[in-house]
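Q: What changes when zinc ion is included in the input?
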Amino acid sequence: MNCTKCKIRAVIDLPRHNAAFCKGCFNIYAHDQVSRAIKSEKMFGKDDRILVAVSGGKDSLALWDILLKMGYKADALYVNLGIGGYSDVSHAKVVNFSETVAAPHGAVLHVHTVEQEAGAGIKELAMLIHRPTCSTCGTIKRYQFNRVALAHKYDVMATGHNLDDEAARLLGNVLRWQEEYLDKQSPSLPASLDGFAKKVKPLFRLSERELAAYSVLNRIDYIVEECPMAKGARTLLYKEVLNRLETESPGTKQAFYCGFLDKQRKPEASSTTMAEKDQAMLHPCSVCQQPTTADVCSYCKMMARAKTHSV
Amino acid sequence: MQVQLSHPARTIEIKGPKKAKDLFKELNLVVEAHLIIRGDELVTEDEMLYDQDQIEIRPVISGGSPRFTSHE
Ligand code: SF4
Ligand SMILES: [Zn+2]
Ligand SMILES: [Zn+2]
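A: The predicted holo structure follows.
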């Protein structure tokens, strides 16, 4: 397989774009998708100061990497949850990336260690207050993200949510018709209170596979293992289902999520419903009286043709 | 060829030569959820893999890497 653009050997194929790319052309593609996301959702400009939430995983490190290479002012925040070996390894990967890649761009890494403030890691803390680990974790991460953004006067907070994350979340909300959550699924949310930073997801046009490929190609050393608390999350099931659909019918995830964004952006188009439109166009068939848009309905036409042929 | 898999981490031996695409089929894996890495280079699905190759099939889907949302 050769690169669609420059014809040298491709390293990744992208069925949903009917393309295959070499490393150089893939990087251009990835940056282009992020740039389109930033512009279409009016996320931020070159003068805004951005705080990226990094975990040591592929998405958030790729996001930091892309923003810096595109010339944005992006610092990062890492929250050490104190989950044994998992936190040790992810912390080390973040520090390594920060020193080797981010620092030369003048970027800074902020670190918050849960154990230092709370006296215990996230698991013990959750047990102490009788809450599920993940919801305790969510509260802490949101709080620290806001705190650091406020203290250091960042304009924007950016997270590494990708197309798969957003499509899976949309699927979950739609399956249960949780319409009140649909409004919050925009990749660009204004500040919830004055003085706080807005929240954006610049990777929403790139799939999880594309982000892993970006990280491998650009030698970003990320943690492949999952957070040990993540097992059994329903999100994984939704992603699996979507990926089976995607493999059979490339482009499904993008059509699902980006189609949703398009619809949300458009103000209530016309108030006429499908049924009303139908009614305006239909009248009785001149032969059988059933509703049709033509003079003679398609059933009567078919039967008339059948009779002439059988004779 | 040696094929390294994750979740759980293990290494299996598969007879080559074999197209990457067919390796996926044999292991019953969804292409959209994985990358194929030979040595330390990405390869596409139509690449032929040989007995002396070191292959890693890396899952790309995460349900819970901390991205500042709760994974409930
Ligand atoms: S899976 Fe891990 S990182 Fe994600 S919310 Fe739960 S504890 Fe936090
Ligand atoms: Zn190319
Ligand atoms: Zn408070």
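Observations recorded in class: The beta strands of chain A are 12-14, 19-21, 49-54, 73-80, 109-113, 156-158, 188-189, 198-200, 283-284, 291-292.
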